[in-house]
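Ex. 9. Protein: Sugar phosphate isomerase/epimerase.
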Amino acid sequence: MKLGVFTVLFAGRPLEEALDYIASKGLDAVEIGTGGYPGNSHCDPDTLLGDAGKLKAFKQAVESRGLTISALSCHGNPLHPQKQIAKEFHDAFVKTVDLAQRLEVPVVNTFSGCPGDHEDAKYPNWPVAPWPNDYQEILTWQWEQKVIPYWSEWGRYASERNVKIGLELHGGFSVHSPGTLLRLREAAGEAIGANLDPSHMWWQGIDPVQAVHILGRAGAIHHFHAKDTTIDPINVNKHGITDMQSYSLMLDRAWQFRTVGFGHDMKTWADILSALRLVGYDYVVSIEHEDGLMSVDEGFTKAVANLQQVLLREPLGEMWWV
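Predicted C-alpha coordinates for Sugar phosphate isomerase/epimerase:
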Protein backbone atom coordinates (compact mmCIF):
# COMPACT_ATOMS: atom_id res chain seq x y z
CA MET A 1 0.00 0.00 0.00
CA LYS A 2 1.07 3.57 -0.70
CA LEU A 3 0.63 6.61 1.52
CA GLY A 4 -0.79 9.81 0.06
CA VAL A 5 -2.60 13.01 0.97
CA PHE A 6 -5.56 15.01 -0.27
CA THR A 7 -3.80 18.23 -1.31
CA VAL A 8 -6.80 20.44 -0.54
CA LEU A 9 -5.08 20.72 2.88
CA PHE A 10 -2.51 22.91 1.19
CA ALA A 11 -4.81 24.91 -1.07
CA GLY A 12 -3.18 28.13 0.16
CA ARG A 13 0.22 27.09 -1.20
CA PRO A 14 1.27 27.02 -4.86
CA LEU A 15 1.15 23.53 -6.34
CA GLU A 16 4.91 23.00 -6.61
CA GLU A 17 5.53 24.25 -3.07
CA ALA A 18 2.84 21.88 -1.77
CA LEU A 19 4.31 18.98 -3.74
CA ASP A 20 7.80 19.69 -2.36
CA TYR A 21 6.45 19.65 1.18
CA ILE A 22 4.51 16.43 0.60
CA ALA A 23 7.51 14.69 -0.97
CA SER A 24 9.71 15.79 1.94
CA LYS A 25 7.47 13.78 4.27
CA GLY A 26 8.17 10.58 2.33
CA LEU A 27 4.73 10.20 0.76
CA ASP A 28 4.03 8.34 -2.47
CA ALA A 29 0.87 9.91 -3.87
CA VAL A 30 -1.40 12.93 -4.03
CA GLU A 31 -5.15 13.24 -4.42
CA ILE A 32 -5.94 16.56 -6.10
CA GLY A 33 -9.11 18.63 -6.07
CA THR A 34 -10.54 19.66 -9.44
CA GLY A 35 -13.72 21.47 -8.44
CA GLY A 36 -16.90 21.13 -6.42
CA TYR A 37 -16.51 21.42 -2.67
CA PRO A 38 -12.71 20.78 -2.70
CA GLY A 39 -12.12 23.62 -5.18
CA ASN A 40 -9.56 23.57 -7.98
CA SER A 41 -6.72 25.73 -6.63
CA HIS A 42 -4.10 23.18 -7.71
CA CYS A 43 -5.79 21.77 -10.80
CA ASP A 44 -8.21 23.60 -13.10
CA PRO A 45 -9.61 21.11 -15.63
CA ASP A 46 -10.57 23.86 -18.11
CA THR A 47 -6.97 25.10 -18.22
CA LEU A 48 -5.33 21.68 -18.49
CA LEU A 49 -7.80 20.23 -21.00
CA GLY A 50 -7.37 23.29 -23.20
CA ASP A 51 -3.57 23.47 -23.22
CA ALA A 52 -1.42 20.38 -23.92
CA GLY A 53 1.71 22.19 -22.72
CA LYS A 54 0.21 23.02 -19.34
CA LEU A 55 -1.15 19.49 -19.03
CA LYS A 56 2.34 18.06 -19.61
CA ALA A 57 3.90 20.52 -17.14
CA PHE A 58 1.31 19.62 -14.50
CA LYS A 59 2.02 15.92 -14.85
CA GLN A 60 5.76 16.54 -14.79
CA ALA A 61 5.48 18.61 -11.62
CA VAL A 62 4.01 15.60 -9.82
CA GLU A 63 6.14 12.86 -11.35
CA SER A 64 9.45 14.72 -11.00
CA ARG A 65 9.02 14.57 -7.22
CA GLY A 66 8.52 10.81 -7.22
CA LEU A 67 4.78 11.14 -6.68
CA THR A 68 1.75 9.70 -8.44
CA ILE A 69 -1.82 11.02 -8.59
CA SER A 70 -4.07 8.55 -6.79
CA ALA A 71 -7.31 10.33 -7.67
CA LEU A 72 -8.85 13.56 -8.90
CA SER A 73 -11.61 14.76 -6.58
CA CYS A 74 -14.64 16.91 -7.35
CA HIS A 75 -17.03 16.15 -4.49
CA GLY A 76 -20.41 17.75 -5.10
CA ASN A 77 -24.13 17.16 -5.52
CA PRO A 78 -24.94 16.58 -9.20
CA LEU A 79 -28.46 15.53 -8.12
CA HIS A 80 -29.24 18.81 -6.38
CA PRO A 81 -32.89 19.77 -7.04
CA GLN A 82 -31.88 23.29 -8.09
CA LYS A 83 -30.86 22.70 -11.69
CA GLN A 84 -28.13 25.34 -11.88
CA ILE A 85 -26.42 24.03 -8.77
CA ALA A 86 -26.66 20.47 -10.06
CA LYS A 87 -25.25 21.53 -13.44
CA GLU A 88 -22.19 23.14 -11.89
CA PHE A 89 -21.37 20.00 -9.93
CA HIS A 90 -22.14 17.76 -12.92
CA ASP A 91 -19.95 19.79 -15.28
CA ALA A 92 -17.07 19.64 -12.80
CA PHE A 93 -17.47 15.87 -12.61
CA VAL A 94 -17.51 15.35 -16.38
CA LYS A 95 -14.46 17.56 -16.91
CA THR A 96 -12.67 15.73 -14.10
CA VAL A 97 -13.34 12.35 -15.74
CA ASP A 98 -12.03 13.69 -19.05
CA LEU A 99 -8.93 15.05 -17.31
CA ALA A 100 -8.38 11.78 -15.44
CA GLN A 101 -8.38 9.97 -18.78
CA ARG A 102 -5.79 12.37 -20.19
CA LEU A 103 -3.58 12.09 -17.10
CA GLU A 104 -4.09 8.31 -16.82
CA VAL A 105 -5.44 8.72 -13.29
CA PRO A 106 -7.59 5.68 -12.50
CA VAL A 107 -10.08 7.14 -10.00
CA VAL A 108 -12.35 10.18 -9.71
CA ASN A 109 -13.75 10.78 -6.22
CA THR A 110 -17.05 12.51 -5.54
CA PHE A 111 -20.36 12.16 -3.68
CA SER A 112 -23.41 10.33 -4.97
CA GLY A 113 -25.48 13.47 -4.52
CA CYS A 114 -28.90 13.72 -2.91
CA PRO A 115 -32.08 14.79 -4.73
CA GLY A 116 -35.05 16.66 -3.34
CA ASP A 117 -38.32 14.97 -2.45
CA HIS A 118 -40.13 15.79 -5.71
CA GLU A 119 -39.43 17.28 -9.13
CA ASP A 120 -39.97 20.90 -8.07
CA ALA A 121 -38.12 20.71 -4.74
CA LYS A 122 -35.66 23.42 -3.78
CA TYR A 123 -33.41 21.59 -1.32
CA PRO A 124 -32.04 18.05 -0.96
CA ASN A 125 -33.97 15.67 1.27
CA TRP A 126 -32.07 12.89 3.08
CA PRO A 127 -34.56 10.44 4.65
CA VAL A 128 -33.17 8.68 7.73
CA ALA A 129 -36.25 6.85 9.04
CA PRO A 130 -38.56 4.27 7.42
CA TRP A 131 -41.73 5.63 9.06
CA PRO A 132 -43.97 7.57 8.58
CA ASN A 133 -44.29 5.96 5.18
CA ASP A 134 -43.80 9.30 3.42
CA TYR A 135 -40.05 8.81 3.84
CA GLN A 136 -40.11 5.44 2.13
CA GLU A 137 -42.01 6.97 -0.76
CA ILE A 138 -39.46 9.77 -1.04
CA LEU A 139 -36.56 7.31 -0.93
CA THR A 140 -38.08 5.09 -3.63
CA TRP A 141 -38.70 8.09 -5.90
CA GLN A 142 -35.17 9.40 -5.36
CA TRP A 143 -33.46 6.13 -6.24
CA GLU A 144 -35.70 5.08 -9.12
CA GLN A 145 -36.05 8.48 -10.77
CA LYS A 146 -32.75 10.20 -9.95
CA VAL A 147 -29.91 8.24 -8.34
CA ILE A 148 -29.87 5.07 -10.45
CA PRO A 149 -30.56 6.73 -13.83
CA TYR A 150 -27.87 9.40 -13.30
CA TRP A 151 -25.11 7.05 -12.20
CA SER A 152 -26.00 4.40 -14.76
CA GLU A 153 -25.39 6.94 -17.51
CA TRP A 154 -22.33 8.61 -16.06
CA GLY A 155 -20.85 5.40 -14.74
CA ARG A 156 -20.79 4.20 -18.35
CA TYR A 157 -19.20 7.48 -19.40
CA ALA A 158 -16.40 7.00 -16.88
CA SER A 159 -15.97 3.31 -17.69
CA GLU A 160 -15.58 4.08 -21.40
CA ARG A 161 -12.62 6.29 -20.41
CA ASN A 162 -11.04 3.68 -18.11
CA VAL A 163 -11.91 5.72 -15.04
CA LYS A 164 -13.47 4.37 -11.84
CA ILE A 165 -15.77 6.46 -9.64
CA GLY A 166 -15.03 6.51 -5.92
CA LEU A 167 -18.15 7.64 -4.07
CA GLU A 168 -17.43 8.83 -0.55
CA LEU A 169 -19.89 7.27 1.88
CA HIS A 170 -20.96 10.49 3.56
CA GLY A 171 -24.03 11.40 5.57
CA GLY A 172 -26.44 13.71 3.79
CA PHE A 173 -26.05 11.89 0.46
CA SER A 174 -27.98 8.97 -1.03
CA VAL A 175 -24.93 6.69 -0.92
CA HIS A 176 -23.66 6.84 2.65
CA SER A 177 -23.16 3.23 3.79
CA PRO A 178 -21.75 -0.03 2.40
CA GLY A 179 -25.31 -1.22 1.70
CA THR A 180 -26.32 1.85 -0.30
CA LEU A 181 -23.04 1.74 -2.24
CA LEU A 182 -23.58 -1.89 -3.19
CA ARG A 183 -27.18 -1.17 -4.15
CA LEU A 184 -26.05 1.50 -6.60
CA ARG A 185 -23.14 -0.59 -7.88
CA GLU A 186 -25.49 -3.48 -8.67
CA ALA A 187 -27.81 -1.16 -10.59
CA ALA A 188 -25.26 1.10 -12.30
CA GLY A 189 -22.22 -1.09 -12.87
CA GLU A 190 -18.76 -1.82 -11.53
CA ALA A 191 -17.33 1.57 -12.39
CA ILE A 192 -19.10 2.60 -9.18
CA GLY A 193 -17.16 1.89 -6.01
CA ALA A 194 -16.28 3.46 -2.68
CA ASN A 195 -13.84 6.11 -1.65
CA LEU A 196 -13.99 4.57 1.82
CA ASP A 197 -13.42 6.96 4.74
CA PRO A 198 -13.53 5.31 8.20
CA SER A 199 -14.42 8.61 9.89
CA HIS A 200 -17.89 8.52 8.32
CA MET A 201 -18.37 4.89 9.27
CA TRP A 202 -17.65 5.47 12.95
CA TRP A 203 -20.19 8.24 13.44
CA GLN A 204 -22.86 6.16 11.69
CA GLY A 205 -22.17 3.25 14.06
CA ILE A 206 -20.49 1.12 11.37
CA ASP A 207 -17.29 -0.79 12.14
CA PRO A 208 -14.78 0.25 9.44
CA VAL A 209 -13.14 -3.20 9.46
CA GLN A 210 -16.47 -4.80 8.63
CA ALA A 211 -17.13 -2.11 6.01
CA VAL A 212 -13.80 -3.03 4.39
CA HIS A 213 -14.79 -6.71 4.32
CA ILE A 214 -18.29 -6.04 2.97
CA LEU A 215 -17.06 -3.77 0.18
CA GLY A 216 -13.70 -5.42 -0.43
CA ARG A 217 -15.15 -8.87 -1.03
CA ALA A 218 -17.27 -7.28 -3.76
CA GLY A 219 -14.24 -5.55 -5.29
CA ALA A 220 -15.94 -2.25 -4.53
CA ILE A 221 -13.18 -0.22 -2.84
CA HIS A 222 -11.66 2.13 -5.42
CA HIS A 223 -9.89 4.54 -3.03
CA PHE A 224 -9.36 5.04 0.69
CA HIS A 225 -9.32 8.13 2.92
CA ALA A 226 -7.50 8.22 6.27
CA LYS A 227 -9.38 10.33 8.81
CA ASP A 228 -10.41 9.60 12.38
CA THR A 229 -13.48 10.32 14.50
CA THR A 230 -14.04 10.61 18.23
CA ILE A 231 -17.48 10.15 19.79
CA ASP A 232 -18.21 12.03 23.02
CA PRO A 233 -19.83 9.53 25.43
CA ILE A 234 -21.94 12.22 27.11
CA ASN A 235 -22.91 14.46 24.22
CA VAL A 236 -23.94 11.54 22.02
CA ASN A 237 -26.62 10.67 24.57
CA LYS A 238 -27.96 14.21 24.31
CA HIS A 239 -27.77 14.80 20.57
CA GLY A 240 -27.49 11.35 18.98
CA ILE A 241 -25.31 10.51 16.01
CA THR A 242 -27.36 12.74 13.71
CA ASP A 243 -26.10 15.78 15.63
CA MET A 244 -26.89 18.83 13.49
CA GLN A 245 -24.76 21.32 15.44
CA SER A 246 -21.96 23.14 13.65
CA TYR A 247 -18.62 21.35 13.46
CA SER A 248 -17.13 24.41 15.16
CA LEU A 249 -19.00 23.62 18.42
CA MET A 250 -16.54 20.89 19.29
CA LEU A 251 -17.08 20.98 23.06
CA ASP A 252 -20.80 20.27 22.71
CA ARG A 253 -20.98 17.99 19.66
CA ALA A 254 -21.75 14.28 19.86
CA TRP A 255 -18.81 13.49 17.58
CA GLN A 256 -16.01 15.24 15.74
CA PHE A 257 -13.39 14.50 13.11
CA ARG A 258 -9.84 13.95 14.32
CA THR A 259 -6.40 13.25 12.95
CA VAL A 260 -5.47 9.58 12.50
CA GLY A 261 -4.65 8.12 15.91
CA PHE A 262 -6.49 10.78 17.91
CA GLY A 263 -9.92 9.16 17.75
CA HIS A 264 -8.90 5.49 17.75
CA ASP A 265 -5.64 3.82 18.75
CA MET A 266 -3.10 2.49 16.30
CA LYS A 267 -4.17 -1.13 16.88
CA THR A 268 -7.56 -0.15 15.43
CA TRP A 269 -5.88 1.49 12.45
CA ALA A 270 -3.62 -1.53 12.01
CA ASP A 271 -6.73 -3.74 11.92
CA ILE A 272 -8.27 -1.52 9.23
CA LEU A 273 -5.16 -1.56 7.05
CA SER A 274 -4.76 -5.31 7.54
CA ALA A 275 -8.38 -5.79 6.46
CA LEU A 276 -7.70 -3.72 3.35
CA ARG A 277 -4.71 -5.89 2.51
CA LEU A 278 -6.70 -9.05 3.23
CA VAL A 279 -9.42 -8.16 0.70
CA GLY A 280 -6.81 -7.29 -1.93
CA TYR A 281 -6.74 -3.50 -1.71
CA ASP A 282 -3.17 -2.50 -2.55
CA TYR A 283 -3.62 1.10 -3.58
CA VAL A 284 -3.34 4.45 -1.81
CA VAL A 285 -4.24 5.45 1.74
CA SER A 286 -4.94 9.17 1.31
CA ILE A 287 -4.74 11.41 4.39
CA GLU A 288 -7.54 13.93 4.83
CA HIS A 289 -7.41 16.63 7.51
CA GLU A 290 -10.54 18.04 9.14
CA ASP A 291 -9.34 18.20 12.76
CA GLY A 292 -10.52 21.38 14.47
CA LEU A 293 -8.05 20.91 17.33
CA MET A 294 -4.92 20.82 15.17
CA SER A 295 -3.38 23.03 12.54
CA VAL A 296 -3.01 21.61 9.06
CA ASP A 297 0.73 21.05 9.45
CA GLU A 298 0.39 19.46 12.88
CA GLY A 299 -2.48 17.19 11.88
CA PHE A 300 -0.82 16.19 8.62
CA THR A 301 2.55 15.49 10.26
CA LYS A 302 1.03 13.37 13.04
CA ALA A 303 -1.16 11.44 10.59
CA VAL A 304 1.87 10.71 8.40
CA ALA A 305 3.94 9.50 11.36
CA ASN A 306 1.15 7.28 12.69
CA LEU A 307 0.31 5.72 9.35
CA GLN A 308 3.95 5.18 8.39
CA GLN A 309 4.40 3.35 11.68
CA VAL A 310 1.46 1.05 10.94
CA LEU A 311 2.34 0.50 7.29
CA LEU A 312 5.90 -0.47 8.21
CA ARG A 313 4.48 -3.14 10.51
CA GLU A 314 2.26 -4.59 7.81
CA PRO A 315 3.33 -8.06 6.57
CA LEU A 316 5.30 -8.16 3.35
CA GLY A 317 3.98 -11.50 2.12
CA GLU A 318 6.20 -13.87 4.11
CA MET A 319 5.64 -15.38 7.54
CA TRP A 320 8.10 -14.03 10.07
CA TRP A 321 9.09 -17.54 11.17
CA VAL A 322 10.03 -18.72 7.66
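Check your answer against this statement. The longest strand covers residues 68-73.
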